[in-house]
Amino acid sequence: MLDREGFRPNVGIILLNHQNEVWWGKRVREHSWQFPQGGIKHGETPEQAMYRELEEEVGLRAEHVKIIGRTRDWLRYEVPDHFIKREVRGHYRGQKQIWFLLRMMGRDCDVNLRISEHPEFDAWRWHDYWVPMDMVIEFKRDVYTRALQELSRFLNRSTPAARRPSRERVPQKSVPTPSEASSVTESDSE
Asked: Under a CB-based contact definition with an 8 Å cutoff, are residues 38 and 44 in contact?
């Protein structure tokens, strides 16, 4: 299902833990990391697609998360021709996405990357909110930056009602601005 301009409707998911770190998935058999995302099926709302994709890719259900915010409008990226199948070249240009910011209400052990017969990810980790864009495939970097920037306005409003039990007290992390994040050295981001 493409729009008139050749963009496929899609959702992107930024999942936060209680320290405002983001869920970061490693693509199966690749060394690239990304947020969960996926297409909106005919008849689905973006929210319905987000919950379906979250369960298919991460194994989390609606009761494991709380919606904190979403982008106001579609964010688009074009896919380079060499990534596009021959039969759709000339028609398909890329993705247009509504991004959701979610708070994890479940536990880390609720994540199940093997819930689907065709998993998207083979590993995952929590990462600082301003993820290093050099780990993201180049043509998605701008959309990731715009989604993180737009949704960062919800971070101060999303103080969770209940904290995950912990043996040690971990203070709530403040989220640096994109300019502060870009000044982090490579060794700091590993």
From this structure: no
* 190 assigned to some structural domain: no
* CATH number where 28 lies: 3.90.79.10
1, part of any domain: no
Residue with tokens 């403040």: 174
Q: Does residue 119 belong to any structural domain of this protein? A: yes
Residue with tokens 């028609």: 91
Residue 50 belongs to a domain: yes
As a whole number of Å, the CA-based R_g of the chain is 17
Domain count, the chain: 1
Q: What is the DSSP string of 101-167?
A: EEEE-S-GGG--TTSSSS-SEEEEEEE-SS--GGGS-GGGHHHHHHHHHHHGGGTTT---SSPPP-S
Domain that holds residue 29: 7-182
Q: What is the pLDDT of residues 120-179, one digit of tens each?
A: 999 999 999 998 888 899 999 999 999 999 999 998 765 554 343 333 333 344 444 444
Q: Which residues contact 25 (CB under 8 A, 6 or more apart)?
A: 33, 34, 35, 36, 57, 58, 113, 120, 121, 123, 124
**Residue located via tokens 């180049």:** 138
Instruction: Tell the residue number behind the tokens 């912990």, with chain if given.
Output: 166
The CB-side HSE value for 68 (13 A sphere, CA atoms) comes to: 26
